[in-house]
Design goal:
The complex is a heterodimer of chains A (113) and B (116).
Chain A lengths: L4 E3 L2 E5 L4 E6 L6 E7 L5 E8 L4 E4 L2 E6 L4 E6 L8 E8 L8 E3 L3 E6 L1
Parallel strand pairs in A: 2-11
Antiparallel strand pairs in A: 1-3, 3-8, 4-5, 4-9, 6-7, 7-8, 9-10, 9-11
Chain B lengths: L3 E4 L2 E4 L5 E7 L5 E7 L5 E8 L3 E3 L7 E4 L7 E4 L8 E8 L11 E2 L3 E5 L1
Parallel strand pairs in B: 2-11
Antiparallel strand pairs in B: 1-3, 3-8, 4-5, 4-9, 5-6, 7-8, 9-10, 9-11
The chains are: A mainly beta (113), B mainly beta (116).
Chain lengths: 113, 116
């Protein structure tokens, strides 16, 4: 199956700075989702953005979706040490992906205190 | 209360053994999943199952079999374990909307399987 791609693979920034991660995908989608995974833990859902939406906010998180470019970005503002984690995007392509989410390889984010 | 719980958290076993990982969700979801995460953190869907249909990733060896005694449980049984099966296995659940759109997934905390 096709995979989403995230960049960068790893990102290290100072606490208080903004962190931006990108996700590209290959097929038309119903929605795109972002998840966080802390070390040794399961994934936690952050935001779901539907194909007819362009931007969505949740606290310090801002997600954009550009269906013409088949890409999305996740912005974390005013980063904190607790934001250190891996971040994954997942796309729902419906029947095109046999109703399975297609996952990116993740961006490892490190926030330096 | 934990929404999706899986046991054990760690599983160390010898090659050739048969083992099971249990998963339970108390969210009332209709769909459950098993994922494998390799050492590079890449997530691979193994199975998805609701009370109507089992969808198997065709690349998963038939040594792996999901077993669902009821809607809230989806256990993973693995026969004849191999070294390459070492990974972290995640159970997840979601509500599959009409038309097949995936809503957000809730994940268990993972089972780290080490095959020696």
């Amino acid at each position: 199956s096709q995979q989403g791609e995230e960049d960068p693979q790893a990102l290290s920034i100072q606490e208080g700075e903004n962190a931006t991660m990108n996700c590209s995908y290959k097929t038309s989608i119903n929605n795109l989702q972002w998840y966080r995974q802390n070390s040794g833990r399961g994934l936690v859902h952050l935001i779901l953005i539907r194909s007819n939406e362009r931007e969505k906010h949740s606290g310090r998180l801002r997600v954009t979706l550009d269906t013409s470019k088949k890409s999305s970005s996740l912005l974390i503002t005013a980063s904190r040490a607790a934001d250190t984690a891996s971040y994954f995007c997942a796309t729902d392509a419906g029947a095109d992906s046999n109703y399975q989410l297609i996952w990116g390889a993740g961006t490892k984010l490190i926030i330096k205190p | 209360d934990t929404a999706v719980s899986q046991t054990p958290k760690y599983l160390v076993t010898q090659m050739g053994n048969d083992k099971s990982i249990k998963c339970e969700q108390n969210l009332g979801h209709d769909t459950m999943y098993w994922y494998k995460q390799d050492s590079k953190k890449f997530l691979k869907i193994m199975f998805s199952y609701n009370n109507k249909e089992l969808i198997i990733n065709e690349t998963v060896p038939n040594r792996f079999s999901p077993k669902s005694p009821d809607k809230a449980h989806l256990n993973l049984h693995i026969n004849s374990l191999e070294l390459g099966d070492s990974a972290v296995y995640f159970c997840a659940s979601s509500h599959l909307r009409q038309g097949g759109t995936n809503e957000k997934l809730f994940f268990g905390s993972g089972t780290q399987l080490s095959v020696l």
